Fold this protein.
Amino acid sequence: MKILTCPVNGPRPVSEFAYGGEVRPMPDGATCTDREWADYVFNRSGVPGVKIEWWYHIASGTWFYAERDTVADRVIRTWLPA
Amino acid sequence: MPYQLLRFAFASKHPEPRMFRTPERLKNAYDAVIIGAGGHGLASAYYLARDHGMTNVAVLERGYIGGGNTGRNTTIIRSNYLTPEGVAFYDQSVRLWQDLSQDFDLNLFYATRGHFTLAHTDSAVRTMRWRAEVNKHFGVDSELVGPDEVRKAAPQIDITCGGHAPILGALYHAPGAIARHDAVAWGYGRGADQRGVEIHQQTEVLGINVESGKVTGVRTTKGDIATPRVLSAVAGFTPRVTDMVGLRTPIYIHPLQAMVTEPMKPWLDPILVSGSLHVYVSQSARGELVMGASLDPYELHATRSTLDFVEGLAAHMLDMFPFLSNARVNRQWAGMADMTPDFAPIMGTTPVEGFYLDAGWGTWGFKATPVCGKTMSWTVANGRNHELIKGFNLSRFERYELTGEKGAASVGH
Ligand SMILES: Cc1cc2nc3c(=O)[nH]c(=O)nc-3n(C[C@H](O)[C@H](O)[C@H](O)COP(=O)(O)OP(=O)(O)OC[C@H]3O[C@@H](n4cnc5c(N)ncnc54)[C@H](O)[C@@H]3O)c2cc1C
């Protein structure tokens, strides 16, 4: 069983967590073009690498950040949003 | 032992022609380069040569023929999809499958088994009825059946599924079939090779040259090639290849796992799928139960397998077939599924002239191998999109015109 470290609850089995996708800056909907908005809504940087992602600890309702290598499936660190 | 094998013992050279030639080195230039020697890439090469007379073509493969998702999939072939685009496309594919063995002179073990998508709740029954009606409207052979028909087709099933998920009905799709995946890749590969296409294994594409918006060549581990046309058919590697030409796409990669039991006597004729139990299963010609479940829950670019997967899937299999409690699991593996937000593929032309995509086939692209080859070869040869794939172009996202193929796969297949 893979273990992920929740910044609040410590190391827990990965089945207790939900994946929230890569952290991406949202363009300003009022000023950006339709194309920029579509790019934000649909496109992803699907290339493998070290990414910062949203994760959610389901049991305690904690959203947090994880820095993870998406090839080796190695979590480098996890922390709470400031 | 068959006596003809003795020839191999006495011959100093391999006494039979190989399925494919192994070209010594890359040429400096080709009319088209296909990246990826999976079923899709090889089928495209085959039809380019056979139907469009383009034979100065190289298929480049970083590993070996059929070593990607083509050789890892659970080979379910069906056409009970939900959108007009989807139904027309997959229907054409099922038709092509039916005489492919003749076409290749190679036994693909194409076996029409019938495909049941089980419904365990009232709302699932409603969805199945809706799918059956949409299918019938488009001329696809689907119908809603009751638990008795399911029991008749698979007498060993516990129709209550351990008491907690009773089967209330099913969507029955009679043309549902399975085939031998490796043979599909080999058949297309051999057919393309015989017509002059070069297949280069152990040759990885590292970069694609683009000058003023047009493809001019590719860089590989075995040297550089000039070419005006590149078709990317690399499934789980698609984001790495689109990155080479600076294209952004909605494709994201999650692993999809599968496993087989030891071989047993034939007892399961149809293909069974349960979205609620996250199971699909069929029995192969060799007698193994071939089983799969849902997509792994997060992005990963690797083909590792997990114990969680085996435990979860085995528990659900036992809900359906308690008598399997002594069956042993022989192998498990994973592939990298290239997913899209609307569960429809991304095919055809791109903003980069000469760069064509056949991707986003996720967990359901094996069944589409022949029709992808047909339509992509037409598209590459003519420089514009084939009629059947117009709804699948990458540009649909920036127009907010998604295809919404929810019938794609409630569980991954
Ligand atoms: C476990 C599992 C079960 C599935 N079950 C089903 C099913 O029941 N029914 C169904 O219809 N579909 C199923 N699928 C989906 C199906 O397998 C795929 O959609 C289909 O096989 C894709 O074929 P392809 O030829 O496009 O890709 P692949 O067979 O993956 O071929 C792509 C090839 O490209 C090569 N490549 C990648 N990058 C490069 C590079 N830079 N240079 C050179 N070569 C490169 C790879 O090595 C690979 O061989 C399943 C998938 C998986 C993983």
Q: What stands out?
A: The radius of gyration of chain B is 22 Å. The domain at 21-73+182-251+342-408 of chain B is CATH 3.50.50.60 (FAD/NAD(P)-binding domain). Residues 20 and 190 of chain B are 6 Å apart (CA to CA).
